[in-house]
TrEMBL record:
One Gene Ontology term, aspect cellular component: extracellular region
GO MF terms held by the record: structural molecule activity
Keywords from the UniProt entry: Bacterial flagellum, Secreted
Protein role: Flagellin is the subunit protein which polymerizes to form the filaments of bacterial flagella.
InterPro entries per the UniProt record, alphabetical: Flagellin_C, Flagellin_N
Highest taxon listed in the record's lineage: Bacteria
Protein name: Flagellin
Originating organism: Methylobacterium soli
Annotated family: Belongs to the bacterial flagellin family.
Keyword Lyase: no
Domain annotation Flagellin C-terminal: ranges: 637-721
Coiled-coil region(s): none
Compartmental location: Secreted; Bacterial flagellum
Length: 722
């Protein structure tokens, strides 16, 4: 029979009472506390040994912990900057190496020029006649400011038009270079090359009566646009300048005061309108070349594909108009002037820019709504602002030179002074035939149609008529020209010198002596008894009495190739995408390197890049083949200047490198100081902690032994109770 529930309950209560009343002796309690302290210290020591730090959190030592964190953060910031500083050092060193290599190429070019100067074999006693040639101030690729050296001509506002003059700037012919003239010959108007621009210039020259056969464009070996007269000699003049509508400088300048667009602004507010499917505004807008019909109803779409709705704002109306203008290929753009009135702007600039706005009749079944341009069919009510030309550009000019090498053109001089007016009225005729070499004879017609007033035909009108007919003849155009000498006598000459050039002129007025007029080349039929028809006049050119120095010509080619290598060397002197020796544009910010020295950016160094290609050094390709000492001397002078420029820039980069390297060393040392300071605040002395661990282990063993001894007295009492 087991114990009763009552006896079990009593037993449990007795045990609980005995447990809660257990007491430790003073010796036992003291040894227990000592053991606990030792265990705690041992745990701390072991933690320091495992982490290597005496301060692991703010609870250990707030001051040391946060100071250490601050020092470590600054060290990390400087370490991050150290990579940038190191890149700066390498970039400068790459540029310095580039300068060294370029200087070697310049020295080679100098040696080549000196070699040409010292070679006197077969040097011509003079030089051939030269054309008037104008070269752009900088290569097209350099002016473009793009990595691939192309220019963006995708809109009318991106304009590189040129004015060309053959009379010292008195009269000018504009060659337009923009989207309108280039789109037919260039596939991608955003990437137009120098060759494509030269081709476009020549195409317009060929269709210009004032320029056809007289001037041509090309691209030099150094990438510059060149324009030259077809004829040679001191009488040739050429001036090329940026047109007043130009926004691009192709090497011949552009207006200092930029040209402006034309605009047409609605006379009244445009947004206070109500549209529907049948009520809207119906306009025709033009840019001077193309006209576009605009329809604005509630269903008209905006750029985001949504409809205008019944109460659009002026901004919404402009948005919908631009959708239709773009679809039609118009160059006009619409904006909301002041947010209230529709404004049409031309993308073309200058005095040739145009904008027109007309109200057209509403379609059948629709009504006209006023969007600020009125509702009456015809010219809209607008405030027009004409496009304004930019300021005049001086441009570049050149004059040809006569031959001094004994060569000559074929020249026939008239023997009649045309100072007084010539009477070509009625049936009077002064015609003659002109033949070049063995080609067909061309009749140059001079009669009552030559001048504005036939009875008083001026020398200028006669000269213009002759040159016009020469230019219209395929065989003569560009090969023969007419002019007046100091005594106002006609001069007909070939444009090229040499023994192969021959001219023949024969009077061809007609058989009626009374109608014949002599302008300097004789009469076909004379009224003087015994005087027969005039003899044909002939003239042949002469070859040079000197010869071309082939050695110099070969050295000139070598020199030009060295210039190309100088440009390539400059382009290749980059490091990590930064090139201190080359940039595509004139903006020095394009290749300026900023090296930051401290964590807040207050300490830095801007290392300005330069342009040390052939253009930047002022070295231009040789065009005369080194045939004259003057050309070589000028080239050597340019090389001397380039050498000084290279040495000066090398010195500048050397100074920059010294500064950056000094800051690099300083940053490295400062980072080490910061890391050491941070470590001193938080790192534990492992030797000390190891000794502490050993001592605490011994103390722990002693404490356990002491606790065991303190418990022996109680164990003796327990033995007695047994």
């Amino acid at each position: 029979m087991g114990p009763s529930p009552k006896s079990e309950t009593y037993r449990s209560e007795w045990i609980a009472t005995m447990s809660s009343s257990i007491t430790l002796s003073a010796a036992t309690r003291q040894n227990l506390l000592s053991l606990q302290d030792t265990a705690s210290l041992l745990s701390t020591t072991q933690n320091r040994l495992s982490t290597g730090k005496k301060v692991n959190s703010a609870l250990d030592d707030p001051t040391s912990f946060f100071t250490s964190q601050s020092l470590t953060s600054r060290s990390s910031d400087l370490s991050a900057l150290l990579n940038g500083i190191s890149n700066g050092v390498q970039t400068i060193q790459a540029a310095n190496q580039g300068i060294t290599s370029i200087q070697k190429l310049v020295d080679s070019a100098k040696s080549t020029a000196n070699q040409a100067l010292s070679d006197k074999s077969a040097v011509s006693s003079g030089k051939a006649a030269t054309a008037a040639t104008v070269s752009g101030s900088v290569s097209f690729q350099g002016l473009a400011g793009t990595p691939d050296g192309t220019q963006d001509f995708s809109s009318l506002g991106k304009d590189g038009s040129l004015d060309i003059s053959l009379d010292g700037g008195v009269t000018k012919t504009t060659v337009r270079l923009d989207a309108a003239t280039l789109k037919g010959s260039v596939a991608d108007l955003t990437k137009v090359t120098a060759d494509q621009v030269a081709s476009a210039i020549n195409s317009q020259i060929a269709s210009s009566p004032a320029l056809k056969g007289k001037v041509s464009a090309s691209v030099g070996a150094d990438g510059r646009l060149n324009l030259s007269t077809t004829n040679t000699g001191a009488a040739q003049k050429l001036t090329v300048s940026g047109a007043t509508s130009a926004t691009y400088d192709l090497g011949f300048g552009k207006p200092a005061t930029a040209p402006t667009a034309a605009k047409a602004v609605a006379s009244t507010a445009s947004g206070a309108v109500t549209l529907s499917a049948t009520a809207g505004a119906f306009l025709t807008v033009g840019d001077g070349v193309n006209s576009t019909d605009i329809s604005l109803t509630s269903a008209s779409l905006k750029a985001d594909g949504t409809a205008l709705g019944t109460g659009p704002s002026a901004t919404d109306l402009a948005d919908a108009i631009n959708v239709q203008l773009t679809a039609a290929g118009s160059s006009l753009k619409a904006v909301a002037n002041g947010g209230t009135k529709i404004e049409f702007d031309s993308t073309d600039l200058g005095s040739g820019a145009a904008v027109s706005v007309n109200v057209r009749a509403a379609p059948s079944g629709s009504t006209q709504t006023d969007t600020g341009f009125g509702t009456t069919t015809g010219a809209g009510t607008t405030v027009l602002t004409a496009g304004a030309a930019g300021s005049a550009v001086t441009g570049l000019s050149a004059t040809g030179s006569d031959a001094t090498d004994g060569s000559a053109k074929a020249v026939i001089n008239g023997n009649v002074s045309l100072t007084s007016a010539t009477d070509l009225s009625g049936t009077k005729v002064a015609s003659f035939t002109l033949q070049l070499g063995t080609g067909p004879a061309k009749t140059i017609k001079l009669d009552s149609t030559t001048g504005a007033a036939a009875a008083t035909t001026s020398k200028t009108e006669i000269l213009a008529a002759i040159n016009k007919q020469i230019a219209a003849d395929t065989g003569l155009a560009g090969n023969v020209t007419a002019s007046l000498d100091a005594n106002d006598k006609l001069v007909i000459n070939t444009t090229t010198a040499g023994a192969g050039q021959k001219l023949t002129i024969q009077a061809a007025q007609g058989a009626t002596a009374g109608n014949n007029v002599d302008v300097g080349f004789g009469l076909q039929t004379s009224g003087v008894a015994g005087q027969g028809p005039a003899t044909a006049l002939t003239s042949s050119g002469k070859d040079s009495t000197g010869s071309t120095n082939s050695t110099r010509a070969s050295l000139a080619k070598q020199f030009n190739e060295l210039l190309n290598q100088i440009t390539q060397q400059a382009k290749d002197s980059s490091y990590n995408g930064v090139n201190l020796l080359y940039r595509n544009s004139a903006d020095e910010n394009e290749n300026t390197l900023k090296v930051t020295f401290n964590e807040n950016g207050s300490s830095s160094l801007n290392i300005k890049g330069v342009k040390l290609d052939a253009d930047g050094l002022g070295l231009t390709a040789v065009t005369g083949g080194f045939q004259s000492d003057d050309e070589i001397t000028k080239t050597l002078s340019a090389i001397t200047t380039a050498t000084s420029q290279l040495r000066g820039q090398a010195s500048t980069f050397g100074s920059n490198l010294s500064v950056v390297q000094n800051r690099q060393d300083f940053s490295k040392n400062l980072i080490n100081i910061l890391d050491t300071g941070s470590s001193n605040l938080t790192s534990a002395d492992l030797n000390e902690e190891a000794a502490n661990s050993q001592a605490l282990s011994t103390r722990n063993s002693l404490a356990i032994s002491a606790l065991s001894l303190a418990n022996q007295a109680q164990q003796g009492i327990l033995q007695l109770l047994r």
